[in-house]
Design a protein that fits this description.
six-stranded antiparallel β-sheet, mainly beta, single chain, six-stranded mixed β-sheet
Length: 257
């Protein structure tokens, strides 16, 4: 004889939920590359202190263990607009849903940006979240001579930060007859203006030029024109005289990139 009956409805908690996820990182999302003669240093270095990204998953406000049998966690990477699987060289590994990166992979990332994407499925619900990392170069933080050489009368140095400096010494002019008066100064009629071509293609822009004149008397030097191709100057005296062993020392500073 049936005395009583009860109906019981069993609901799988994974069938209906409000799923949410947070990603936490142990390191900054910005990495700095410092370039020196001996190589490149990354700060922070993912090789010295591996990057660890940990997802925290919530279902209806309750945290779900990353080892829950109903939870699946999958990671991908994205760089240059292209999404792909994690690298298989051992530098990007996943253990119990946690991603570890033990190599400075930003160094090879397109546009100096790398995104790690976490895909989570719990029951029948799936969500995703991502963490973006960028590589920056600290301009002028570490500078050094990238190239130096000789071109004609010029000795030049290229600095890593884009600065270029040229120093030139003209051949000695045995005699300069400053006997032609123009306004209040005296010039050599055959050498009113001098011009020295800069090394071809070296300068993208020029910012400064300096001139020092050596002779056996009192001689003035004045820059008259400056471009990325040449520097022009004039030599004069304040009285009629003849100068000997005249040498012009020139300095030009600008940018090569």
């Amino acid at each position: 004889m049936l005395l009583s009956s009860n109906s019981i409805t069993v609901m799988d908690a994974t069938d209906s939920q409000n799923l949410a996820m947070e990603l936490t990182c142990n390191l900054s999302k910005m990495q700095t590359a410092i370039i020196t003669n001996s190589g490149t240093t990354y700060v922070p270095s993912w090789e010295d202190t591996p990057l660890v990204i940990t997802p925290t998953v919530y279902s209806n406000g309750r945290e779900i263990s990353l080892t829950d049998k109903n939870l699946t966690v999958h990671w991908k990477r994205k760089t240059g607009g292209t999404e792909s699987n994690l690298l298989t060289d051992g530098s990007e590994t996943v253990t119990n849903g946690v991603l570890t990166v033990n190599k400075n992979n930003l160094a090879s990332a397109s546009n100096d940006a790398l995104i790690y994407i976490c895909y989570v499925t719990y029951g029948s619900t799936s969500i995703q979240n991502s963490a973006e990392f960028t590589l920056v170069f600290k301009d002028g933080a570490v500078d050094y001579i990238a190239e130096e050489g000789v071109s004609g009368i010029w000795e030049y140095k290229k600095w890593h930060n884009g600065r270029v400096e040229c120093i030139g010494r003209t051949n000695a002019l045995a005699e300069l007859k400053c006997t032609t008066q123009i306004d209040s100064c005296y010039y050599d009629a055959a050498h009113v203006s001098f011009s020295e071509a800069l090394p071809a293609g070296l300068f993208k822009s020029v910012k400064y030029a300096g001139l020092t004149v050596l002779s056996d008397g009192y001689l003035n030097g004045n820059l008259s024109a400056l471009s990325i191709n040449e520097v022009q100057y004039k030599l004069s005296t304040s009285y009629s005289s003849t100068q000997h062993n005249v040498v012009a020392m020139l300095q030009v500073v600008g940018k090569y990139k």
